[in-house]
């Protein structure tokens, strides 16, 4: 029993000493913090400058007056495409003209100065072989009294002719028309014989005689381009040497290529003092069918229409 009491007494002594030490340490910490706060409140320096041995210097900020920056140069898209190093470029897309621009479509200005010269108002849609101006699409009647009707590939209008009749606006005359039997292979290679109209046209403009059938579209070896004029969106067909006179300048078709489809077009200012050329490629695939191609929906007509086929072989 006496041993247990001594042990408990020693434990209490140790705990008391620990509490006294902890209280003393905490009190000293609080006193030190208050002294530091008092020094900071009096504006006294914590570390005297005399105790710092490092040398001190005073530097003047550069004024930049002696630096010469090169002016920003125009990009290849036009004179108004100017960007410098310190300005992030802002480029807009105009859905009406399908062109990128450095000004929003809503505030783009139109004038007769540099803006018109910088614009290139021609967009290439397609390059292909040139079809003949008339295409035979149907006929009716019997031997010696056939009436053939043709499609004007420029306007889509129908032209009705008998043998010996002329079309003054197109400069052609139907010299002969007959019905022939032609062997045609179907998709499964099964041969069938169909009656096909064959028309012979005298073309006064070219001095040639052209043979047309209602089974195929007559094409020439030279090329033509389908273009869109901006910003109105008017579609035109042009050939090498064609000249377009627009408000922004005159455009001349210098060259055409089918593979790959390209058109080299030169723009000339109204005063003829400046010119530059661009090689255009189709901006997007077009869903429009070429002029003279057969449409899925056959136009209403009192005449019999013989549908065209992709593969054919002539007897004899």
Describe the model.
The chain is an alpha+beta fold and 316 residues long. Among the domains are: 1-33; 122-128 and 222-280, no CATH class; 133-217 and 292-314, no CATH class. It is built from two helices and 17 strands. It has helices at residues 2-41, 114-118, and strands at residues 92-94, 99-101, 122-131, 134-140, 147-152, 158-161, 166-167, 172-185, 191-203, 208-213, 219-229, 234-238, 243-246, 249-257, 262-268, 275-280, 313-314. The strands form five sheets. Strands 7, 8, 9, 10 and 17 form a five-stranded antiparallel β-sheet that branches. A hairpin with a 4-residue loop joins strand 7 and strand 8. The chain is elongated. Residues 286-316 have low confidence and may be disordered. Keywords: Membrane, Transmembrane, Transmembrane helix. Residues 288-297 have a biased composition (Basic and acidic residues). The chain crosses the membrane at residues 12-31. Residues 275-316 are annotated as: Disordered.
């Amino acid at each position: 029993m006496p041993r247990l009491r001594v042990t408990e007494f020693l434990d209490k002594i140790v705990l008391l000493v620990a509490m006294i030490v902890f209280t003393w340490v905490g009190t000293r910490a609080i006193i030190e913090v208050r002294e530091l706060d008092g020094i900071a409140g009096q504006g006294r320096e914590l570390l005297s400058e005399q105790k710092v041995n490092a040398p001190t210097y005073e530097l003047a900020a550069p004024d930049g007056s002696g630096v010469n920056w090169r002016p920003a140069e125009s990009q290849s898209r036009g004179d108004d495409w100017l960007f410098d190093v310190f300005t992030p470029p802002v480029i807009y897309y105009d859905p009406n003209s399908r062109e990128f621009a450095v000004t929003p479509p809503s505030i783009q200005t139109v004038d007769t100065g540099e803006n018109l010269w910088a614009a290139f108002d021609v967009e290439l849609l397609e390059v292909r072989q040139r079809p003949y101006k008339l295409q035979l699409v149907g006929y009716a009647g019997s031997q010696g009294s056939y009436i053939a009707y043709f499609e004007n590939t420029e306007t889509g209008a129908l032209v009705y002719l008998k043998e010996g009749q002329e079309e003054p606006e197109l400069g052609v005359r139907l010299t002969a028309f007959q019905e022939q039997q032609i062997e045609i292979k179907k998709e499964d290679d099964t041969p069938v014989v169909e009656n096909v109209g064959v028309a012979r046209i005298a073309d006064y403009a070219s001095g040639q005689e052209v043979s047309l059938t209602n089974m195929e579209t007559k094409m020439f070896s030279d090329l033509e381009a389908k273009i869109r004029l901006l910003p109105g969106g008017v579609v035109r067909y042009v050939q090498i040497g064609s000249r377009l006179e627009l408000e922004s300048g005159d455009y001349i078709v210098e060259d055409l290529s089918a593979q790959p489809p390209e058109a080299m077009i030169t723009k000339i200012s109204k005063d003829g003092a400046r010119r530059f050329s661009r090689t255009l490629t189709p901006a997007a695939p077009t869903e429009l069918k070429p002029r003279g191609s057969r449409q899925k929906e056959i136009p209403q007509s009192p005449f019999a229409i013989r549908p065209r086929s992709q593969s054919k072989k002539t007897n004899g």
